[in-house]
Amino acid sequence: MTNPQTNSTVETGIAYAPVEALGPRIALYTPEFAADPHRVYQRMRGRYGSLVPVELAPGVPATLVIKYHTAVRILSDPARFPADPRTWQAQMPEGLAIMPMVEWRPNALRSDGANHDRYRTATVNALAGLNVHTIRAAVEPIAIPLINTFCTRGRADIIAEYILPLVFSTINSMLGCPAHIGERVAAASAAMFEGVDTATVNTMLNQALLELSRLKRSRPADDITTRLIEDPARLSDQEMIHQLVTHYSAGVEIPQNLIANTLLLMLSDSRFAIDGDGFAPTTGAAIDEVLAVDPPLANYCLSYPRQPVLVDKVWVPAHQPVIISMAACNNDPETNNGQFSRNGWNLAWSAGPHSCPMQARTVSVLIAQEAIDQLFDALPEMRLAVPLDELVWRPGPFHRALATLPVIFRPSPALNPR
Fold first, then answer.
1. Domains in the chain and their CATH numbers?
2. What's the pLDDT at 5?
3. Environment class of residue 80 by beta-carbon count within 10 Å: exposed (0-12), middle (13-18) or buried (19+)?
4. From CA 270, how far away is CA 99, in angstroms rounded?
5. pLDDT at residue 416, rounded to an integer
6. pLDDT at 354 (0 to 100)
7. What does each C-alpha distance from 348 to 168, 174, 255, 267 come to in angstroms?
8. Which pLDDT score, from 0 to 100, does residue 63 have?
9. Mean pLDDT, consecutive 10-residue segments, the chain of 418 residues?
């Protein structure tokens, strides 16, 4: 029952507060939050405990989970924390900018039970056909022509001129997507993360991905899209669109931010400088640290309880998003001891039945490592062009993403592709 004087719920004589009574909601969508989220997480931890009332967009409440062990319990409990948002979604206003990132789709990320298993199995089967041993060889012929577009002038915005086109070209190749379709998918994917209205994003994506699906039905090849089509799940064209949305949104945004955040760490932290003996920590060590400390998808893994749920002595409301802060949970002082070499514990890839498939994790890390190594091999004296505090981070509740990464270096002759 509810105690009207305390606005809390009473069970067996003990009153537990609803999450909205813990304090004011914190906006996750502002430029101020994007500029220094770790300071905000630290303040949250001191004031709120494991659960924090937040806003994903103006007037869109949610509960943010910032304690590691609480997050693992929630991610492993799809019965009480299902992924299907349709009841919540029906209550939201038209044109909500974040909706393309959170709305229901017939794919594994937004489904539960038998539907989840069907979509997840098809995705894992399609990814299993990737030969991870060829990833490095696939990245080099994309990386070198991109480096040649800016290496002679001594400065570049590494995200716009190198990281984004490299990642997108690599993912297009894996999916078997021709350039003329890939360019339209790129524009739609960028619009999704930047909060362009739902109708525009979905129209852009649906048209491009339907064309890709129909192309592969008529001209199959050795690629992820063809393997999805040929899977025993017998996915329809509409279902194919939504599987491909997941592949593109996760397959581009996450490696892109992982590369940029790792480069920033390596360019700004003296621990990654070459020592007197000519050695420096490996790119792999820097990637491991970023996944633990500053993961590319910082707040996500949404669920939508069907009824109020008591979590850590706080009531979480029904039909309102519960969002996991992978960044805050990974930095939970009860869990993170500063050792990043073994990353099986962290939540950068989520946990539980909706976690990122293992093959996708491997591919993302390999793309990031090869992209960074190719860049430093070509431009070993590269350094930041602006002070750290002048870098701009893209606002938004979900990603940890730089807007630009300007660098300078000694001009270098164009490379000869091998």
1. 1-100+298-347 (3.30.43.20)
2. 36
3. middle
4. 40
5. 84
6. 96
7. 21, 23, 12, 22
8. 98
9. 41 75 96 96 95 97 97 97 97 89 94 96 96 88 97 97 96 93 82 67 87 96 97 96 92 94 95 69 91 95 97 97 97 79 80 95 95 95 95 96 97 86
β-strand partners of 53: 63
Q: Quick count: other Cβ atoms within 10 Å of Cβ 356?
A: 17
Give me the residue label for tokens 């962290």: 346
Entry pTM:
0.92
The two structure tokens encoding residue 44: 């949250």
What is the predicted pLDDT for the residue at 192?
A: 67
CB 22 within 8 A of CB 54: no
Distance CA 254, CA 364 (A): 8
3-state SS, the chain, equals CEECCCCEEEECCEEEEEHHHCCCCEECCCHHHHHCHHHHHHHHHHHCCCEEEEEEECCEEEEEECCHHHHHHHHCCCCCCCCCCHHHHCCCCCCCCCHHHHCCCCCHHHCCHHHHHHHHHHHHHHHHCCCHHHHHHHHHHHHHHHHHCCCCCCEEEHHHHHHHHHHHHHHHHHHCCCHHHHHHHHHHHHHHHCCCCHHHHHHHHHHHHHHHHHHHHHCCCCCHHHHHHHCCCCCCHHHHHHHHHHHHHHHHHHHHHHHHHHHHHHHHCHHHCCCCCCCCCCHHHHHHHHHHHCCCECEEEEECCCCCEEECCEEECCCCCEEEEHHHHHCCCCCCCCCCCCCCCCCCCCCHHHCCCHHHHHHHHHHHHHHHHHHHHHCCCCEECCCHHHCCECCCCCECCECCCEEECCCCCCCCCC
Residue 352: predicted pLDDT: 95
Provide the residue count of the chain. Answer: 418
Which pLDDT belongs to residue 276?
55
Return the amino acid letter for 226: T
